[in-house]
Amino acid sequence: MFSEFGALPSVEVVPDPEPTPDGVVVAVAATGVCRSDWHAWRGHDEDVRLPHVPGHELAGTVVAVGERVRTRRVGERVTVPFVCACGACPQCASGNEQICDHQFQPGFTGWGSFAEFVALDHADVNLVPLPHHLDSVTAAALGCRFGTAFRAVLRQGELAAGEWVAVHGCGGAGISAVLLAVAAGARVVAVDLSADALALAKRLGAEATVQSADPADEVREITGGGAHLSLDCVGLPSTCAASVASLRKRGRHVQVGLMPPGQGVPPIPMHRVIADELRILGSHGLQAHEYPAMLDLVSRLDLGQLVGRRISLDEAPAALAEMDQPVAPRAGVTVVELPRP
């Protein structure tokens, strides 16, 4: 919990949550430490109200169910998208719950999963049952970063086998994008300032790596004219601009990393967007109804290297503070593991 933006969070005893009539309470078994949590802690998200408990990539077990919940039950192992939907607005009716007009986000609009228990509303719409073979730590690592990368690469990016993909930033979202693009038969160029992150990307199948803060020329040379698809998985004006500059004609840029306005506006060359017919797209999470397709794909992938380290809840504040550094100190996804009786 933190009561001041930027002040080191502390582990506190707080009242256990109660389910709403349409919601559940989940006993958290594991939760990812994501750069989005860092943004919330640093005060970049206007939805966060103090005091606050972050955390939004979770897996756990349902321990209490509201009176109007029809499809979920106590004892069920579940996960949830980081964008939770109302199930009733026009966006939800069209199947686009990831941009729900009345969305709520655990760890942002309300208290999240850096806790023993978390309350989740509209459980029939948002909860995703976990298969028995998928352990909770891996399921948590598939949270917002892997789910967002799944949508960014395969849905928004419309990746085809044989295309070149440039992945700018090989943290949790970026390394997930590398894994997914390789599985789809693409040729991947991984871009990062961290040698460890690039080494992991190489082990996961990236064909080439670029260690540079100004990588566009090198990416275009490697790919013979530019990437067909380029993703900014960092969320800085410079990395967004580099991703767009890495594209070939009629290429697609997908913005994955969050871009808080306070960090500045990326210098996008709109004259080139017009002349080269570039496409600029966003990717905002993954709908609950898409999770079965993602989990089916996951069952055919080797996720052993996706999780970088497992830590306790007491170690979570320091792990969050480490993200102040521009280069990630460790490769892979950091996951908080909570002991369950």
TrEMBL record:
Keyword Metal-binding: yes
Residue stretches making up the Enoyl reductase (ER) domain: 6-328
Assigned keywords, A-Z: Metal-binding, Oxidoreductase, Zinc
Entries under InterPro entries matching the protein: ADH-like_C (IPR013149), ADH-like_N (IPR013154), ADH_Zn_CS (IPR002328), ER (IPR020843), GroES-like_sf (IPR011032), NAD(P)-bd_dom_sf (IPR036291), Zn_alcohol_dh (IPR050129)
GO molecular function, one term: oxidoreductase activity
Keyword 4Fe-4S: no
SUPFAM superfamilies: GroES-like (SSF50129), NAD(P)-binding Rossmann-fold domains (SSF51735)
One Pfam family, short name: ADH_zinc_N
Known cofactor(s): Zn(2+)
Similarity comment text for this entry: Belongs to the zinc-containing alcohol dehydrogenase family.
Protein name: Alcohol dehydrogenase
Gene behind this protein: adh
